[in-house]
Structures are given as structure tokens and as C-alpha cells.
Write a sequence for this structure.
């Protein structure tokens, strides 16, 4: 009887314990169910946003920026973009209430937070891009936000100072009265710049201009001041066309500094010397030719290759050529007629035809200096070796590349 009584007692205790366990488990199951429902109600994050934009932009210039999904680089349409000051951006990142919401997995309304802290720039289109023009200089943080995405923070500097420099190209020398073409390009990208102003300065004024522009570079009205400085110290030549070019004819000799300037750019400088510089002649002939074989000599303008008609051609010994060069160097001017100085020297070969050519047969072996002379040109020189009859068997006629011919010298 005692054992039966104990058994019944344990059955009662076991039933009571099971009842307590079942009763305690009901709220836990209900709580778990509510948590699952809350998780299911909150959509999962689709990814993180990434802003692609210039690091710096001038005031008043339209900026294009894109918002992409960081994980796959796909454009994100409908993303809002705000501009915050650095202080407001840091305040947003350090906001304890916002951090608690994120930590508790709440669906944070970033747009409401950003709307009270920054300036709304717009929403991205189907290509994930927006355009905006800043009216004031400053340092900002761009923030892109969209529901179900982690926002992105992107610093940008809006400047009134030039963010690039100009390059101006022109010939190093030019004769007076001849049109000069000057080209203005962007230093960073090489693009040709339309509507850039070009000035001509003296060397002394150019140094003053550079120093004065450097002193105002940090001011808000630097662009207006730079143009005023150039107008005060130089001669305005005009503005570049759609190809970034401007033409000007300098009528006076001198050395000038050309300056190119346009708002939002640092000015560019180059030097041009205006003076009469005679063109030079170039002479072409075989390096080696046998005696009694016709040699063709051609005279052209150096640099262009155009044939020169009526140029007088002589063949001089090396010593005569050196004496002629010394005489020309001590007395020549751009309009000096060299022909009288060479009369009586060497062998007169003749004058070039319309193709700039003259032909001649050398009767005596030796090494000659061919000299071409024409008024208004710097004389041209070249060497030719005439092979003696004893070497004709091995010489390659008119082959300037042959190095196997033995030359007989007079």
C-alpha cells in the first residue's frame, strides 16, 4: 500500500511539472512568433549605395554625379541626394538616437534625418544620375539615401579658385607682318578652349602680372581681378574661336610674353620673338659618286622641303668652305647677298631649275663641300666624295650608303 501511495504521489508531481512546463512555454512561443512576424514585415537591405562625383568643382559650373549599388555597380534610380556641411554630416554619423535605431534593426528613415540637416539636390533618374550647380563655395558632404539601402557619404569641395590651368602654344619666332596662330588648351585634358582671352605683354610686365595674380589667387573675386590685371599691363589680342585658336599679326620686332586667361582657369604663358629670320637652305646629294658620272644635287627650303629655284651651287674644298662660313658669320645680315663672297672659290656647278635640281659631272676625284646660295636664305651645305678611277670597280655609283670606296684626295 505504501509503494502504491508513493507511485500516485510521483504521478501527481510529474503531471504538475509538465503542466508548468507547458504553461511557461506558451508565452515564449508567442514571443518568437511575433519576432518572426516583425522580421518578415521589415524588408531586408538590398545593398549599399556609392556616390561617384568630382572631388572638386567650381562655383557656377554644372556638376554631374551618379549613384550606384556598391555590390554590383548598377545605377540606382530614385535615390535622393543631399549636401551637408561637414559638421552636420559628422553630427548625423554620431547621432546616438539614430545609432540605437540601427542597432535595434528599426527601418531608419534617412530622408527625414537628412532633410533637417542638409540641402536636397534631387533624385537620380533611370541612369542613376543627377545634375546640380553650386552657387556658393565651401566644403560639403554629399549623402545619397534610398529606402532599404545603406547610405553613402562623399566629400566634395566647391571652389572659386581655378581648378585647372591653360596652356598657350605659339611659334617661338615669327617675322614682322606675318600672321601668327596661337592655340589655347586645357592643361589637364588637352581640350581646346573657346573664348579664352589672349594678351601680349613685355617681359617686365609679365613678371608683374604673375606676381599680382598670385597675390589675389585666394580671394573670392580672383577671376575678375586677373582679367583686370592683364588689361592694365598688356595688349588684348582677342578671344579664341571654337578650335581654341586666335590669329594675330605682329608688326613690330621684339620679344613678347603671350598670356591666355579664362574664368575658372589659371592663366597660361609662353614667349614669342618677332624678328626677321632668314630661311635656311638644305642640300641633298649622293655621299659617294665616281668620277665622270652625272650627279644630281637638289636644293630645298629647310623645314618645308619645298624646292628652291635659281639657287647658285658651288663645290668647294673643305678649307674653302670653312673660310666662307667664317666670312658669312662676321658680315651676314638677313638680306646679305652671299654670292659675291663665294665668287672665285671652288667650282661653280650652276643654278637650280624649277624642281630645285642641278646636275654636274666631277672630273677630279676628291672630297667636296657642296654649297647652295640664294639671297634671303642661310646657305646650305653637304659633303660628297668623288671616287678616283682606280676605285670605280668596287665603288657603288651614287650609293650614299657605301662605306667601301677609297677616296682619292686632291
Amino acid at each position: 500500500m505504501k509503494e502504491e501511495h508513493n507511485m500516485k504521489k510521483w504521478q501527481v508531481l510529474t503531471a504538475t511539472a509538465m503542466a508548468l512546463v507547458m504553461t511557461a512555454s506558451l508565452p515564449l512561443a508567442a514571443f518568437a512568433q511575433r519576432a518572426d512576424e516583425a522580421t518578415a514585415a521589415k524588408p531586408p537591405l538590398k545593398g549599399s549605395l556609392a556616390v561617384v562625383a568630382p572631388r572638386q568643382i567650381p562655383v557656377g559650373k554644372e556638376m554631374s554625379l551618379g549613384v550606384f549599388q556598391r555590390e554590383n555597380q548598377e545605377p540606382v534610380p530614385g535615390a535622393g541626394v543631399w549636401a551637408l556641411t561637414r559638421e552636420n554630416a559628422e553630427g548625423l554619423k554620431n547621432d546616438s538616437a539614430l545609432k540605437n535605431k540601427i542597432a535595434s534593426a528599426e527601418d531608419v528613415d534617412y530622408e527625414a534625418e537628412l532633410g533637417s540637416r542638409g540641402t536636397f539636390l534631387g533624385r537620380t533618374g533611370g541612369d542613376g544620375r543627377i545634375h546640380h550647380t553650386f552657387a556658393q563655395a565651401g566644403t560639403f558632404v554629399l549623402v545619397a539615401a534610398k529606402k532599404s539601402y545603406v547610405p553613402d557619404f562623399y566629400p566634395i569641395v566647391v571652389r572659386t579658385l581655378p581648378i585647372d590651368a591653360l596652356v598657350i602654344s605659339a611659334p617661338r619666332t615669327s617675322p614682322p607682318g606675318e600672321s601668327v596662330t596661337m592655340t589655347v588648351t586645357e592643361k589637364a585634358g588637352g581640350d581646346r578652349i573657346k573664348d579664352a582671352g589672349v594678351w601680349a605683354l613685355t617681359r617686365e610686365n609679365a613678371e608683374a602680372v604673375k606676381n599680382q595674380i598670385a597675390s589675389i589667387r585666394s580671394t573670392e573675386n580672383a577671376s575678375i581681378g586677373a582679367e583686370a590685371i592683364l588689361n592694365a599691363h598688356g595688349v588684348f589680342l582677342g578671344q579664341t574661336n571654337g578650335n581654341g585658336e586666335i590669329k594675330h599679326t605682329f608688326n613690330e620686332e621684339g620679344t613678347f610674353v603671350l598670356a591666355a586667361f579664362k574664368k575658372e582657369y589659371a592663366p597660361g604663358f609662353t614667349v614669342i620673338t618677332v624678328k626677321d629670320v632668314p630661311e635656311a637652305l638644305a642640300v641633298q646629294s649622293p655621299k659617294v659618286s665616281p668620277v665622270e658620272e652625272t650627279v644630281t644635287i637638289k636644293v630645298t627650303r629647310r623645314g618645308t622641303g619645298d624646292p628652291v629655284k635659281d639657287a647658285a651651287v658651288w663645290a668647294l674644298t673643305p678649307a674653302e668652305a670653312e673660310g666662307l662660313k667664317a666670312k658669312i658669320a662676321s658680315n651676314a645680315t638677313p638680306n646679305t647677298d652671299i654670292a659675291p663672297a663665294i665668287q672665285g672659290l671652288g667650282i661653280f656647278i650652276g643654278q637650280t631649275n624649277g624642281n630645285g635640281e642641278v646636275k654636274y659631272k666631277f672630273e677630279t676625284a676628291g672630297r667636296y663641300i657642296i654649297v647652295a646660295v640664294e639671297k634671303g636664305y642661310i646657305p646650305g651645305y653637304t659633303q660628297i666624295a668623288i671616287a678616283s678611277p682606280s676605285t670605280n670597280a668596287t665603288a657603288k655609283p651614287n650609293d650614299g650608303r657605301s662605306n667601301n670606296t677609297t677616296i682619292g684626295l686632291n
